[in-house]
Write a structure and sequence with these properties.
By secondary structure, the chain is α+β, with helices and mostly antiparallel strands. The protein has two domains: 59 residues, Alpha-Beta Plaits (2-Layer Sandwich); 278 residues, no CATH class. The protein is built from 15 helices and 13 strands. Strand 1 and strand 2 form a beta hairpin. Bound molecules: flavin-adenine dinucleotide (FAD). The site of flavin-adenine dinucleotide has 33 residues, from helix 4, strand 4 and strand 11.
């Protein structure tokens, strides 16, 4: 077969790496291959018979259905330990417990022994802790979509949690919205390159002379507003710093090494692919802060509403407009910093530490420019 006969998949700068094409290829002819920036992209091999299934299931090439506007709530898990271990208010754990109590299987992102992030299936409550907490790195789905399909076919209830593009990819792969599948996505500001994260891990291992064995990206500390980036090494050593003061955290805040598609994200709005959308609440009035961390929850579908009614979560109704004003990831895609390309070029020719010092030095971070919503946020909170 000639090169030109191969199906046309999403353009590189829009491909989210969801892998629906590769997971769905009937010939197993599409492999997800890492590029020089460390992100996975589909590569069509000679086994391709040009059936076109991959282009058919690609979410980027398909017009998305426009749903009616979701209902918004402020919610939090009553269990304080769970809230402390979660990134926001511990909604995910409540959902996961519900799914497992219903005899189901829960899919979400966990950190493996090499500290890479990948989707795994969890079948008992003790293992929910592996999925708890946001990992900013793009998680590798591997065969998660096929496994979800297998459990659904066995009649099991499945909860799939992931970025909105991963959830959309799952539905496109399945080709339907099965009754026994519940999905949750989250307000997502973009995913970090697994390749860059790998370089951070290597560099930390080298500096500490021991292998890093555990990482927490946004650990909560009592009485501290800043999240902590904590790494534990073999032999007992640790790295522990406020996330915003670590080079990794600064790279995340600067959106320096996000996947190219994240800068054009089609999901950074309130038309969500999942049944439920979780989010963090950023600008909380003081009195609400005293409740501990809380989540934003968007109820996007009837199924989502039905299950939300059965969850043991504390809740307060919230105007969608206020939720959107509070959460930048529901208003638009991350803005690409002008030095992103330079960063990746330098990464190929200079030692990693030098590149970090050049791009991630600890100047106070000014935030992204032009938050036209700031005034509206202030007005809305004052009204409360
Ligand atoms: C890459 C990323 C970007 C985010 N950006 C924003 C943002 O811009 N605005 C905002 O309000 N909140 C953001 N969050 C945080 C998100 O809102 C919270 O993780 C979510 O609200 C769940 O919080 P929780 O307390 O209910 O549960 P937690 O216990 O914190 O839930 C963790 C859940 O997130 C999933 N997860 C963790 N890491 C990944 C990953 N790399 N890929 C896919 N799924 C993952 C887990 O499977 C689990 O389901 C982001 C999280 C991630 C992972």
């Amino acid at each position: 077969m000639t090169e030109t006969a191969k199906p046309q998949l999403a353009p590189r700068d829009l491909c989210t790496g969801c892998g629906a094409c590769s997971s769905g290829c009937p010939k197993g002819a599409i492999h997800m291959v890492r590029d020089r920036e460390g992100f996975l992209y589909p590569q069509i091999s000679d086994g391709c018979v040009s059936c076109g299934h991959c282009a058919h299931v690609c979410p980027v090439l398909k017009q998305r259905e426009v749903r009616s506007q979701p209902a918004a709530f402020i919610v939090w898990n009553e269990n304080e330990t769970v809230r402390v271990q979660s990134t926001a208010g511990g909604v995910f754990t409540a959902l996961a417990e519900f799914a497992l109590e219903s005899g189901g299987v829960v899919f979400g992102a966990a950190v493996d022994e090499k500290l890479q992030v990948r989707h795994i299936a969890v079948k008992n409550k003790e293992d929910i802790r592996m999925l708890r907490g946001a990992k900013p790195i793009q998680s590798e789905l591997g065969e998660a979509y096929q496994q979800v399909q297998m459990y659904l076919e066995q009649g099991r209830f499945v909860l799939f949690s992931g970025t909105p593009c991963q959830v959309d990819g799952l539905y496109r792969f399945l080709g339907e919205h099965p009754e026994n599948l519940l999905t949750c996505d989250f307000a997502c500001g973009g995913v970090v390159s697994p390749g860059v994260w790998g370089r951070f891990v290597e560099s930390m291992n080298y500096v500490k002379r021991h292998r890093a064995v555990e990482v927490r990206f946004c650990e909560k500390m009592k009485g501290e507003k800043d999240r902590r980036f904590r790494v534990r090494f073999e032999g007992g050593g640790t790295f522990d710093a406020p996330l915003g003061k670590s080079q990794m955290g600064r790279g995340i805040a600067r959106r320096l090494f996000l996947r190219p598609a994240c800068y054009h994200c089609a999901y950074a709005n309130t038309n969500r692919p999942a049944d439920l959308t979780m989010g963090a609440l950023w600008d909380l009035p003081k009195e609400s802060c005293q409740k501990g961390s809380v989540s934003l929850l968007l109820i996007n579908t009837v199924k989502g509403a039905h299950i939300f009614d059965r969850l043991p979560l504390k809740r307060e109704g919230w105007a969608l407009e206020e939720a959107v004003a509070d959460n930048a990831a529901l208003r638009g895609a991350a803005v690409q910093p002008p030095d992103r390309q330079k960063f990746f070029e330098e990464l190929e020719r200079l030692p990693f530490r030098k590149v970090c010092d050049r791009f991630l030095s600890l100047r106070p971070y000014q935030g992204q420019q032009g938050d036209k919503w700031a005034a509206l946020k202030e007005k809305l909170w004052k009204k409360r």
